């Protein structure tokens, strides 16, 4: 049985595009049911529509607090029959109204090898720390920021002369490989996905 996926975005939605194209290319345990943005002008909405995926906007500026915004997002996801949620550049701090409703059914991709560098500015922080390996992580969403159970990681080497932009580009390439694989595995069998983390290493990436 294919599970309906709702994808939350705030911007251009490159990870959303990777997820949707993967699900459409190889129909299986998951299919895109909705792409929802908190920003009316998000570029990813146009991309999703072009790919034939229903879209919605729940503008966070129209709500007096985070809880009521999160309740509205919940309602829109429910209306679309969503069963799993994939956060793909959704730049909102979520309350228990949202994280609680989707506990065990919401994934996120973060641009670092968690538990290293939770939060923002991950690539700059990785370079400042002098790490030899950087990457990205797909994890379940919990109320604690970037601290949910890890489902998969992809690593890239940090090269001499790397800038924040060059490192970010190399990591993003791996995000687009990792996230679709983890989502498909999780949709097919959450318990197995939790037990067998997906691991990728891009030793030769440019």
Automatic annotation (TrEMBL):
Keywords: Purine biosynthesis, Transferase. Its EC number is 2.1.2.2. Pathway: Purine metabolism; IMP biosynthesis via de novo pathway; N(2)-formyl-N(1)-(5-phospho-D-ribosyl)glycinamide from N(1)-(5-phospho-D-ribosyl)glycinamide (10-formyl THF route): step 1/1. Residues 7-183 form the Formyl transferase N-terminal domain. The active site is at 110 (proton donor). (6R)-10-formyltetrahydrofolate binds at residues 66, 108. The record marks 146 as: Raises pKa of active site His. It is an enzyme of class 2 (transferase). It catalyses: N(1)-(5-phospho-beta-D-ribosyl)glycinamide + (6R)-10-formyltetrahydrofolate = N(2)-formyl-N(1)-(5-phospho-beta-D-ribosyl)glycinamide + (6S)-5,6,7,8-tetrahydrofolate + H(+). Belongs to the GART family. PANTHER family: PHOSPHORIBOSYLGLYCINAMIDE FORMYLTRANSFERASE. Catalyzes the transfer of a formyl group from 10-formyltetrahydrofolate to 5-phospho-ribosyl-glycinamide (GAR), producing 5-phospho-ribosyl-N-formylglycinamide (FGAR) and tetrahydrofolate. This is Phosphoribosylglycinamide formyltransferase. The lineage of its organism: Bacteria, Pseudomonadati, Pseudomonadota, Alphaproteobacteria, Rhodobacterales. The gene is purN.
């Amino acid at each position: 049985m294919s599970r309906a996926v709702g994808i939350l975005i705030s911007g251009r939605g490159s990870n959303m595009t990777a997820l949707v194209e993967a699900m459409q290319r190889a129909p299986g345990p998951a299919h895109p049911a909705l792409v929802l943005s908190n920003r009316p002008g998000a570029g990813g909405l146009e991309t999703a529509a072009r790919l034939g995926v229903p879209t919605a906007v729940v503008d966070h500026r129209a709500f007096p607090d985070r809880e009521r915004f999160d309740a509205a997002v919940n309602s829109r996801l429910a209306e679309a029959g969503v069963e799993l949620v994939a956060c793909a550049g959704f730049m909102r701090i979520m309350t228990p109204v949202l994280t609680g409703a989707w506990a065990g059914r919401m994934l996120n991709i973060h641009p670092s090898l968690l538990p290293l560098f939770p939060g923002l500015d991950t690539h700059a922080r990785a370079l400042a720390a002098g790490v030899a390996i950087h990457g990205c992580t797909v994890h379940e969403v919990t109320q604690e920021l970037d601290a949910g159970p890890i489902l998969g990681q992809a690593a890239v080497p940090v090269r001499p002369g790397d800038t924040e932009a060059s490192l970010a580009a190399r990591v993003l390439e791996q995000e687009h490989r990792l996230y679709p694989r983890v989502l498909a595995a999780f949709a097919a069998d959450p318990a197995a996905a939790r037990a067998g983390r997906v691991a990728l290493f891009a030793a030769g990436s440019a």
